[in-house]
Specification:
CATH superfamily of the largest domain: EAL domain
Bound molecules: ligand C2E, calcium ion
CATH topology of the largest domain: TIM Barrel
Mean pLDDT: 84
Radius of gyration: 66 Å
Shape: rod-shaped
Largest sheet: 8 strands, mixed, barrel
Number of strands: 16
CATH class of the largest domain: Alpha Beta
Helix content: 55-70%
Strand order of the largest sheet: 8-9-11-12-13-14-15-16
Length: 734
C-alpha cells in the first residue's frame, strides 16, 4: 500500500514525468491525494483523529465488558458459591445437632431443638434462594434432586423427632441411622456436586473473562500500532508532498538568482506551491524582460534603436560579420538645425538618416553588393558608423552612392523641408583580393575619423583614409611648428583680390588672402595650412598678421582711394579667443584707418559650429564699427531665422554655386533665392569665383551686387597689385 513518492521532479524547461511503473502507481495515488497542502494536512490529521477515536472506543467497550463480568462475578456467582458452601456446612452440621438432640435430657431439649430448627431454616433458605438463582440454568436438575432429598430428610426428621418426644430413643437412633443420615448424605452429595459445578462454572467464567481481557488488550494494541504506522506514513507522505515541491521552488529561485531565466518551475500537483511556482515563473519572465531591456538600453541608442558605440566594440559584433570596411557618416549642420529649427526637427533628421542608411545597407547586402549582416550604429549626435565587408573600394563607393540616393528626398518636419546631407569618412582593411586581414573595429573607426575630418576640411562629400593622408597629417604637424617662425621672419605674404560692383564695374574693395613662401617647401597654399593652423589654434597668429598688413595697406590707400575696403578672413578660433574684438579695435585705432574700411569674413559653416555663441561674438565685432561678411554662403545651411539675427552686411555666395551657373537652371533658382533673401535682409550679395563671362552675366541677371573671381582679377601681390591700384580711377574723398 505504500506508494513510492517521486516528488523530486527536476526543474527543467517543460519537463514531463517519466511514465514508468512507480510513476503509474503515483498517478493512481495522485487521483485522490488532495492538491492543496491545507487539505492534505486536514486529511492526514483527520484520519489520525478517526483512528484514535476507534482505538479509544474499542478500549472503553472492552473495559466496560470486563467490568460487567467482574461485577456479575462479585454480586451473583460468588454469593451462589457461598450459599452452596453454607448449604454443605449446614447439612453436615444438622446431623451432629440431631445426635446431640437425641442424647439430650428432656429438660435441655428445647435449646437443641432451636439449634436443629435454625440449621433447617438455613438449609431451606439456601435451597430456596438457590432455586430462585438457578432457575433456567443447567444446575436445575441437581437442585431438583436436592429439594427432593430435603423433603425425604424433612419427613425422616419429623419421624425421628416424634420418637424422641416419645422417649423412644432406640427407635430414634434407628430412624436417624436408617432414614435421616442417608437423606442428609444424599443432600450432602448433591450439594457438593452443586458446589463442584459452581466452582467449575466460576472458573470457566474467569477463564472467559481472562481471554476476553487479553483479546481486548490485543485489539487496543493492534489499533494503536495501526494508528502509529498510519500516522508515521501520513506524516512522511504529507511532509514529502510539501517539502519536495518547496525544495523545487528553492532550486528554481536559486537558478533565477544565478541568472538562468530559461528554466521553468514545473507543476507539482500542490496548489499552493504551484501558485508560488507560477508567481516565480512570472517573476522570472519579468526579470528576464527587464534584463533584456537594460541590455538593450546599454547597447542601443534610444532615439534610433540602432546599436551604439559600445555595441560596435562588442567582440561578437566584430567576429560575426568580419567587418572589412567602416563608413563614418556625419549629418551636416545638425547643430545649426537643432538651434534654429528645434531639437524635434534635429531628432527627426537623425531618425530619418538612421532609417534610410540602414535600409540602404540591408538592400545592398540583399543584392550581394556587400557582405551579409552589415551593422549601422549611431556613435553620437549626427554621426553614424556602418561596418560591413566589401571586396574593394569601388564597391564601397557604389554603396555610398546608394546611401546618397536614399538621402535624396528632403525630410518634411514641422513645416520645414530639410535636406539630408552626409559627409563620409571611409576606411578599409586593404585589398581583400590580396588577402589582407580585417582590421580591428577600433582601428577602422580611427582611420575613418581621420578620413571624415579631411573630407570636411576639403569640403568634399567623402574621403578615404589612406597612408598618404597619415603622412600628410604628420607633415602638417611639422609645418605647423614652422608657422610661428614664418610669421616672425616674414615668410607670409598678403595677396589682395579685387571685388567689383556688377552695376558700375568699379572696384569696391579687395579680399586679403594669405600666402606662405616656405624656405624649403616653397609655396604653401592656404588650403594646406589654414585648416591645420585653425585646429592647432595657431590661426590667430596669421589673422593678426593679416589684420596688421590690411590696416597698413588701407592707411596707404586712404589719401587716394578711401572708398576701397580690405576684407580679412577670420576663423571661428579667432572668435573664440577672449578679447579678440578688443584687440581688433585697438589695432584699428592705432592705424588711424576708419573701422568701416576693414571688413571681416566669417564662413557660414564656422558660424554654424556654435550658432548661439557666434551671434554674441559677432555683435561684439559689430560694436567696433567693422562690417561683417558671411563667407562661403550656401555651404553651411543656416536658416533664414538664424540669418536675421546676425549683424552682417554682406553675403558671399560660395563659388561652388557660381561654377557653371549659366548651365544649371536648378542652381540658378537657388542663387536667385539666396540673393533675394540677402536683399530682404538688406545685405550686399557677392558672387565668388566668377571665371567666365557667362557666369558674370548670369549672376548679374539673378540680381547679385558684387563679383569676385579670376574673370575680373586673380589675387594680386607686389608690382601687379601696385599696377592695378595705380590704374584705378581717382575719386573724390568721401
Ligand atoms: P576663401 O575665403 O573663399 O577665399 C577665396 C578663395 O578662392 C581664394 O583661394 C582665392 O584665390 C580663390 N579664388 C578667387 N577667385 C577664384 C576663381 O575665380 N576661381 C577659383 N577657382 N578660385 C578663386 P585661396 O587663396 O587658396 O584661399 C583658400 C581659402 O583659404 C580661403 O577661401 C580662405 O578660407 C582661406 N584663407 C586664405 N587666406 C586666409 C587668411 O588670411 N586667414 C584665414 N583664416 N583663412 C584664409
Ligand atoms: Ca574669404
Ligand atoms: Ca569664399
Amino acid at each position: 500500500m505504500e506508494p513510492t513518492p517521486t516528488h523530486h521532479t527536476p526543474v527543467t524547461p517543460s519537463t514531463t514525468m517519466p511514465a514508468d511503473l512507480p510513476g503509474m502507481a503515483e498517478q493512481a495515488w495522485q487521483r485522490w491525494w488532495p492538491q492543496r497542502i491545507g487539505w492534505r494536512l486536514a486529511l492526514g490529521f483527520g484520519v489520525l483523529v478517526v483512528l484514535m477515536l476507534v482505538a479509544l472506543a474499542q478500549a472503553t467497550y472492552q473495559i466496560r465488558n470486563i467490568t460487567g463480568v467482574t461485577q456479575r462475578f462479585a454480586t451473583g456467582d460468588m454469593q451462589r458459591l457461598l450459599r452452596v458452601q453454607a448449604l454443605s456446612m449446614q447439612t453436615e452440621g444438622v446431623g451432629n445437632a440431631l445426635i446431640r438432640l437425641i442424647n439430650a435430657p428432656r429438660d435441655s431439649r428445647v435449646a437443641e431443638y432451636a439449634d436443629v430448627d435454625e440449621r433447617n431454616r438455613r438449609i431451606d433458605g439456601a435451597i430456596e434462594s438457590l432455586v430462585q438463582d438457578m432457575r433456567g440454568s443447567d444446575q436445575e436438575e441437581n437442585l431438583k434432586r436436592l429439594v427432593e432429598c430435603r423433603a425425604v430428610y424433612a419427613a425422616a426428621f419429623i419421624a425421628t423427632a416424634d420418637e424422641i418426644e416419645a422417649d423412644n430413643s432406640s427407635q430414634a437412633w434407628r430412624l436417624l441411622n436408617d432414614r435421616v443420615n442417608p437423606a442428609l448424605k444424599t443432600m450432602l452429595v448433591e450439594s457438593n456436586a452443586l458446589l463442584q459445578s459452581e466452582r467449575q462454572r466460576i472458573e470457566s467464567q474467569l477463564d472467559d473473562a481472562q481471554r476476553q481481557f487479553e483479546r481486548a488488550a490485543l485489539w487496543v494494541a493492534g489499533l494503536s500500532l495501526l494508528a502509529v504506522v498510519l500516522a508515521t506514513w501520513l506524516g512522511v507522505r504529507t511532509t514529502r508532498s510539501v517539502v519536495g515541491p518547496l525544495a523545487q521552488l528553492e532550486v528554481a529561485a536559486q537558478r533565477i538568482a544565478e541568472g538562468d531565466y530559461s528554466s521553468r518551475v514545473s507543476t507539482t500537483r500542490t496548489q499552493e506551491v504551484d501558485r508560488v511556482g507560477q508567481a516565480l515563473n512570472t517573476m522570472t519572465d519579468a526579470v528576464a524582460q527587464r534584463e533584456r531591456d537594460i541590455e538593450h538600453l546599454a547597447f542601443h541608442d534610444p532615439l534610433t534603436g540602432l546599436p551604439n558605440r559600445t555595441a560596435l566594440f562588442q567582440p561578437q559584433q566584430a567576429s560575426a560579420t568580419e567587418p572589412h570596411c567602416l563608413a563614418l557618416m556625419d549629418l551636416a549642420r545638425l547643430k545649426a538645425i537643432n538651434e534654429t529649427l528645434g531639437y524635434t526637427t534635429g531628432d527627426t533628421l537623425i531618425q530619418q538618416t538612421a532609417q534610410r542608411a540602414s535600409l540602404a545597407l540591408q538592400q545592398a547586402a540583399a543584392d550581394g553588393l556587400i557582405g551579409p549582416d552589415p551593422i549601422v550604429a549611431r556613435l553620437s549626435g549626427g554621426t553614424f558608423a556602418a561596418i560591413f565587408s566589401a571586396p574593394n573600394r569601388a564597391t564601397v563607393e557604389a554603396l555610398r552612392e546608394r546611401i546618397e540616393q536614399a538621402m535624396g528626398a528632403p525630410v518634411q518636419c514641422s513645416g520645414h523641408s530639410v535636406d539630408l546631407s552626409l559627409t563620409y569618412g571611409l576606411a578599409d582593411s586593404g585589398d581583400r583580393a590580396q588577402g589582407s586581414k580585417a582590421l580591428p573595429v577600433d582601428t577602422l573607426l580611427r582611420n575613418a575619423e581621420v578620413a571624415l575630418h579631411s573630407a570636411k576640411r576639403a569640403a568634399v562629400g567623402f574621403a578615404w583614409h589612406s597612408e598618404a593622408q597619415e603622412a600628410a597629417r604628420l607633415s602638417h604637424l611639422s609645418l605647423l611648428s614652422d608657422l610661428r617662425q614664418a610669421v616672425a621672419t616674414s615668410q607670409l605674404q598678403m595677396w589682395l583680390q579685387p571685388k567689383f560692383s556688377l552695376a558700375t564695374g568699379r572696384a569696391v574693395g579687395t579680399e586679403a588672402l594669405v600666402r606662405w613662401q616656405h624656405p624649403t617647401r616653397g609655396f604653401v597654399s592656404p588650403a594646406e595650412f589654414v585648416p591645420f593652423a585653425e585646429q592647432a589654434g595657431y590661426i590667430t597668429l596669421v589673422t593678426e598678421w593679416m589684420l596688421q598688413q590690411a590696416l597698413r595697406t588701407l592707411a596707404v590707400w586712404a589719401p587716394t582711394h578711401p572708398e576701397l575696403s580690405i576684407a580679412v578672413n577670420v576663423s571661428t578660433r579667432d572668435l573664440q579667443h577672449k578679447g579678440f574684438a578688443e584687440r581688433v579695435a585697438r589695432m584699428i585705432e592705432a592705424s588711424g584707418v576708419p573701422a568701416k574700411r576693414l571688413r571681416l569674413e566669417i564662413t557660414e559653416s564656422g558660424l554654424m559650429d556654435d550658432p548661439t555663441h557666434s551671434v554674441a561674438l559677432l555683435y561684439e565685432l559689430r560694436e567696433i564699427g567693422t562690417p561683417l561678411s558671411i563667407d562661403d554662403f550656401g555651404t553651411g545651411y543656416s536658416s533664414l531665422a538664424y540669418l536675421q539675427k546676425l549683424p552682417v552686411s554682406e553675403l558671399k555666395i560660395d563659388r561652388s554655386f557660381v561654377d557653371k551657373l549659366d548651365q544649371s537652371p536648378g542652381t540658378q533658382k537657388l542663387v536667385r533665392a539666396m540673393t533675394e533673401m540677402g536683399h530682404g535682409l538688406d545685405l550686399m550679395v557677392t558672387a565668388e569665383g566668377v571665371e567666365t563671362e557667362a557666369e558674370r552675366e548670369t549672376i548679374t541677371r539673378l540680381g547679385c551686387d558684387v563679383m569676385q573671381g579670376y574673370l575680373a582679377s586673380k589675387p594680386l601681390h607686389g608690382d601687379k597689385l601696385q599696377a592695378w591700384f595705380d590704374a584705378l580711377p581717382v575719386h573724390a574723398a568721401s
